[in-house]
DNA ligase-associated DEXH box helicase
Amino acid sequence: MINPETWMEIREGGFYCVPAECYVDPMVPVTRAVVTHGHADHASRGHGRVWATPETIDIMRTRNYVADETQTTGLPYGQRHDLGGGVTLWFASAGHILGSAQAVFEYQGQRIVAAGDFKRHPDPTCAPFEVVPCDVFITEATFALPVFQHPPLEDEVEKLMRSMRTLPDRTHIVGVYALGKCQRVMKTLRLAGYEHPFYIHGALKRLTELYESYGQDFGVWQLVSEIDRNDKDRFRGKIVLCPPAQINDRWSRRFADPLPTVASGWMQIRARARQKRAELGLVVSDHADWNDLLRTCRETGAGMVWITHGRVEALEYALKKEGINAKGLHLIGIEEAAGE
């Protein structure tokens, strides 16, 4: 068996597949890039050619991450593709957001899976995570500490709806990431019986429309900017969705008695909730928690686990205690991943 480090290297731009001459989720412009999903810490501008799922390519176009001259190849889950140099590439669902994928590289009888960001909790807005047996598994470690045990999203949505019943005159302003978190929260609220229109910040519009083009139904929603600024009572007892930075910004002053709320995996840490000035914290994460990170590494059967981004040392230590050959890596990039 060949040494996987001879054909999948760590370079300044990220992981580099040597025989196929391409990078995985590079943070700098490169000639050839395999992109696992559309968040800004994995998808960037300036690449000459991009391989991703069709949904991720559409997300990158929507966010202006690909230029007209960029060559794109959209691969649906499971479709095998000759990447060159004897390397076969295919994508498996990562369960993170719409179109998110694990990049599966096969070379000379060996398989390396670059998981990107992933989660194991159910999500009505994207395909569920698929366990792919492999020789090397590359995992993130955003929430790789035992304290992080993510509750079901339905429980956190019920917490929000209970707050609305208790405080019917307040406007619940919920800070959510524009890609993935926003749509997942909206869909789960609908499934829980929330019947009022959603009012959303303009920054959430294009990606919500993109999700709808893929068959998601969020019911009635309206841009806050389309409402008369003097009509504050319109928002009482309703949900307003916006980027997290806006919940305590001047923008929020247009609402009647706003109640700042943040939906994030970090809300499990009280200091983070205080830092965000959230009156209500919802533990909502699009990443695997501690238990799911451990069980995923086990279930892949990988002889080697490479760990990136986040609490690398803690996960490396825990896996080594179980007899798994784990290696913590420190890549240049954004540590607190988008869509947290």
